[in-house]
Amino acid sequence: MSENIYGIMAEFDTPTQLVDAAVKVRDAGYTKTDGFSPFPLHDIDEALGIKRSVLPYLILTGGITGLLSALGLVYFVHVIDYPIIVGGRGHFSLPAFIPPMFELTILFAAFTAVFGMLFLNGLPSPYHPVFNIPRFALASREKFFLLIESRDPLYDYEKVRTFMESLSPQEVFDVPE
To answer: Which of these, 47, 138, 163, 172, has the minimum number of CB atoms within 10 Å of its CB?
Structure first.
């Protein structure tokens, strides 16, 4: 049975119980874990040992790429490809180029944010093994769940199940694949 198990999940009644259990799970050395809550819990990332995302750096890179692309585009068009003097200004008039540079900066940063978030979150993912547990439907309403995946390096079915039961959950579930 333990070969077809995605992990072991515990159900808790309060967010405090979930965060306290997550701290104990992290302190026990488990790394492939996840917490599920009906609303955002700001302490759960730290409690599970989740590191900060690289998404802000990706967005900054996307914005800088957009800025440099726009600068290169307007330079090419107005200086190299079609040099026309308009209103007595030189070919490369930076104040006139600020609006398109701003627009491409925002556009590239926004696309990087959306697609980076989707990629880093592993979306779209219409199926997850936790959906096989009927009580997991309560995760969107009133219950809190903590999962230790079977691909964790410290995973041993009996030890993990005993450990999860020692956290005083309402119930402990085996999550099938």
So the answer is: 138
